[in-house]
């Protein structure tokens, strides 16, 4: 999967307008999700569908710029003259009344939109897009406090306060700063799936709202008495588990089973905690270690394949399939009962 390149123009915007959406995108990206596997089980199949993301903060120069809020100063990582081609541009919201859009920024925005690339605006970032002329004839929204003030100044834009964000072609406009995060959450869900969004939101302990501002995006959870409980489910490895999950790419040479034979192998997997430990696998840490072990993700049915190889030669000894039960919201229950070995494939003599 090719990396997605995001850019944000640097001027005196409200910090959360850009930092909130980009942090959510980053938290839903492959690099951070892979890093979090050190601390908690995150399925490889989710990570494989998550985006790889590159961020650019684009200035007129690389001189520091003081943002509108929180006494934050940001140093641009590139300039409008040096910036590589972007897949997506994000415009944060300034204080509209005194704000003046630099002509080179305006031209940068127009070129980006004319190329058919994705544009996100958050809060009064839509005012910046309107100043650049890219919202004329488009449906859009903006921070609802400044709504009427901005609407009067740009009558060619089809302004609306009916929803938390508005999509018109490749232009997505969000209302307040938090609504910008909700909007980007919807984009992540639409393009990469609910489980990728859930994993990304989990790291931020963030629950996105829908386009009407309601908490309907992530599945609700309830206890045995029907009382609503926390939406997010936090899982951890057993205390004896290794620090990070092993992957096939960790090993120099792995050979498949040359003459495979498979047979059913239906036995319970015990004790509790063994599932997490098996999924983490095993790397060779000394000359005495004879085996390399790693697991392939899980499919939609919760099946995981555990691969066992000789550490010195890389020859495969067995591929063992086991099935992990799913909880009430469709997540793997790694620490619960019910995990079963189902099949073994081994070298036939």
TrEMBL record:
One Pfam short name: DJ-1_PfpI
Every DJ-1/PfpI domain range: 57-189
Domain of life: Eukaryota
Coiled coil: none
Name of the protein in question: DJ-1/PfpI domain-containing protein
Source organism of the structure: Xylaria arbuscula
Taxonomic lineage: Eukaryota, Fungi, Dikarya, Ascomycota, Pezizomycotina
């Amino acid at each position: 999967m090719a990396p997605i390149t995001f850019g944000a123009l640097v001027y005196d915007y409200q910090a959360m307008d850009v930092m909130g959406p980009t942090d959510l995108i980053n938290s839903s990206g492959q690099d951070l999700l892979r890093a979090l596997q050190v601390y908690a089980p995150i399925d490889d199949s989710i990570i494989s569908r998550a985006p790889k993301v590159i961020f650019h903060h684009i200035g007129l120069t690389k001189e520091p710029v003081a943002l509108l809020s929180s006494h934050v100063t940001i140093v641009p990582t590139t300039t409008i003259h040096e910036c590589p081609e972007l897949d997506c541009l994000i415009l944060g919201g300034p204080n509209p009344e005194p704000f003046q859009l630099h002509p080179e920024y305006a031209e940068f925005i127009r070129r980006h939109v004319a190329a058919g690339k994705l544009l996100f605006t958050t809060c009064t970032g839509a005012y910046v897009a309107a100043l650049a002329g890219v919202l004329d004839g488009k449906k859009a929204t903006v921070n609802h406090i400044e709504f009427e003030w901005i609407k009067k100044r740009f009558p060619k834009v089809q302004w609306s306060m009916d929803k938390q964000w508005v999509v018109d072609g490749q232009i997505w406009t969000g209302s307040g700063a938090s609504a910008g995060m909700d909007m980007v959450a919807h984009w992540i869900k639409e393009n990469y799936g609910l489980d990728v969004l859930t994993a990304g939101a989990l790291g931020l302990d963030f629950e996105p709202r829908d386009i009407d501002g309601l908490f309907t995006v992530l599945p609700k959870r309830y206890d045995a008495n029907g009382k609503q409980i926390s939406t997010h489910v936090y899982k951890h490895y057993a205390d004896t588990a290794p620090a990070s999950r092993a992957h096939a790419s960790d090993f120099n040479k792995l050979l498949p089973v040359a003459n495979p034979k498979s047979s059913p192998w239906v036995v319970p997997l015990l004790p509790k905690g063994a599932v997490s430990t098996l999924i983490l696998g095993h790397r060779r840490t000394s000359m005495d270690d004879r085996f390399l072990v790693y697991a392939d993700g899980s499919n939609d049915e919760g099946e995981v394949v555990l691969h066992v190889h000789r550490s010195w030669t890389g020859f495969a000894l067995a591929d063992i399939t086991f099935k992990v039960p799913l909880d009430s919201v469709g997540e793997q229950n790694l620490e619960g009962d019910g995990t079963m070995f189902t099949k073994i494939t081994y070298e036939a003599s």
